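Incident log, support desk, overnight shift.

02:14 A customer reports that sequence design results differ from what the structure should imply. Their input is reproduced verbatim below. On-call engineer (initials T.W.) acknowledged and began investigating.
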């Protein structure tokens, strides 16, 4: 089990956001938030979708990578603040070497 209780899921998509909401809802959020992460102790799921991939430019993809790093750094900062209580990486049973 993960003691961190949080996860950042980064997805890419070729489906425009409006069409995905209208026709499909948000099935990937459901998969991550209801079918995968709760079983490893994650209750706070943060998800970001970068789209549309197939017609994206190198500049757009570079912006996406910066945004992914920014979001991951923000989540890690919060996890590190909690590491004093739970140990590095938020792992249950972690023993310092």
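02:41 Re-run completed on a clean worker. Output:
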């Amino acid at each position: 089990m993960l003691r961190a209780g949080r996860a950042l899921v980064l997805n890419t998509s070729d489906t425009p956001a409006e069409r995905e909401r209208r026709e499909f809802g948000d099935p990937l959020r459901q998969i991550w938030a209801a079918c995968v992460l709760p079983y490893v102790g994650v209750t706070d799921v943060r998800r970001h979708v970068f789209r549309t991939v197939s017609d994206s430019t190198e500049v757009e993809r570079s912006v996406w990578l910066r945004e992914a790093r920014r979001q991951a750094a923000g989540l890690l900062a919060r996890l590190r603040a909690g590491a004093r209580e739970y140990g590095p990486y938020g792992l249950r049973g972690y023993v310092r070497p």
